[in-house]
Amino acid sequence: MPKRQVFFSFEYHKDAWRASEVRNMGKVDNSSTFSDNDWEEVRLKTDKEIQKWIDDQLNKRSCLVVLIGATTSSRKWVKYEIEKAYELNKGIVGIRIHKLKDRYGNQTTAGANPFYSIFTNKGYRLSNYIEVFDSNYSLSASVYNDIKENIERLIENAIEKAGTY
């Protein structure tokens, strides 16, 4: 199975460490991963520049992977990325990362489903259609391995379902 080009969506301030662990698992095409310096640079741009960057990135990708932490669902740019991926008929999948340790060795609580407050063109909640993976494990190392073992399948399933909801 070829490695897919995906766009990772996550809350930068709280989840950059956890997101970098997932981004660097080696399960997606290398062009899907940006260095932490790239993310830092993008977030300092104007809203219009950020929006253009997101649009350009999503146009090149086959799937949006939303890495869900404690407060991801409340983030403006995460919501925009989901709406844009839906508009472009991209695959969309959520992966809960709250049980991965951050740089200080802490886990956090599960956040709300970011797809719940976004509606399809037919008026249904996107959360009815988008898979959200939540590892059954509680130890960070086990959660990491669980995500690593399942991420390619999750992405492929999302791509297959793209544009059907």
Describe the structure.
- This protein is an alpha/beta fold and 165 residues long.
- The chain has a single domain (6-161), classed as Rossmann fold, CATH 3.40.50.
- The protein is built from five helices and four strands; from the N terminus they run E-H-H-H-E-H-E-E-H.
- It has helices at residues 12-23, 36-43, 47-60, 76-87, 140-161; strands at residues 6-9, 63-68, 91-96, 132-133.
- The protein has a four-stranded parallel beta sheet with strand order 1-2-3-4, with helices on both faces.
- Helix 3 (47-60) crosses helix 4 (76-87).
- The two termini are 25 Å apart.
What tags apply to this protein structure?
41% helix, Rossmann fold, 165 residues, alpha/beta, 4 strands, 11% strand, four-stranded parallel β-sheet, 5 helices
Strand content: 5-15%
Largest sheet features:
4 strands, parallel
- Ends apart, CA distance between termini: 25 Å
Total count of domains: 1
Kindly provide the radius of gyration, computed on alpha-carbon positions and rounded to a whole number of angstroms: 15 Å
**Mean pLDDT across all residues, rounded?**
91
Helix content: 40-55%
| CATH topology grouping | Rossmann fold
CATH architecture: 3-Layer(aba) Sandwich
User: What gross morphology would you assign?
Assistant: globular
Query: Can you count the helices?
Result: 5
Order of helices and strands: EHHHEHEEH
CATH class: Alpha Beta
Low-confidence blocks of residues: none
Strand element count: 4
Helix/strand-derived class?
Answer: alpha/beta
Strand order of the largest sheet: 1-2-3-4
